[in-house]
Amino acid sequence: MNNSPSAIPLAQTPCQQPDTLRVQALRLLQIGSTQTKAAAVRELDTTAWPLDVAQFLFEPPELPGRPARPVLVQPGALRQRAVGTLEGRASLIHALTHIEANAINLALDIVWRFDGMPQAFYMDWLQVAQEEALHFELLEAHLRTLGFAYGDFPAHDGLWDMAARTRTDLLARLALVPRTLEARGLDATPAIRNKLVSVGDLRAAQILDIILRDEIGHVATGNRWYRHLCTQRGLDPVATYDLLALHHSAPVLKGPFNLDARRAAGFDEAELAALCGTPAAIA
Length: 283
What we know:
This protein is an all-alpha fold.
């Protein structure tokens, strides 16, 4: 089967869709093999197609394209393994690899799905997609050095579940995916890195350093465009976030929080105070 972007059929529509950069993002999203998808995303020449910000695209069935494995289960069904064992370390690396696979899909989805934004919005998220593809490739290659492959362990679908819940609301998507679920990675990554260092996996630690650096930028992209829409609509960012989180049943975030990374990603003191449940800005 040819999984190249140009070979992926789009949904049947009354008229032929012009071939644009956002169409390419949709075609990439439909690719089933994550390895093929990641390679194609990294090779995407964003200057090769016109960018039509007003183009409306019909949603094809069965998004995103997925491999047959990993088997997707509820988060509570995932078995906890000691990271000090080879299988436990591989399971942890596999979980991180799956997060990056989902992150590729999320970035591609926001590009094709939501029209009417400035051109810079789409270029920002395509850059995010390409960096997430690199993260996937780095982790997947490291997983193979441990004797395992992506798909060898079950995984959960929490990131994409929130994308599905916010599929008709860009403001909610920005608030609850990059600024909530992906921002949790800023909090969790240092502890995971330290755990891997403690068992001698220095290569994994190096990869997580790259990921944390890039993820600060990705969350900053979410913050920037969330605030753009709030300003455009005359909304208070903090109060609006609370309403969106309640409406879409977003998880309640609990510390500890990586406040330095969150500040670098563009969260202001009012947002950090609300996050930490304190009435004033955090020192």
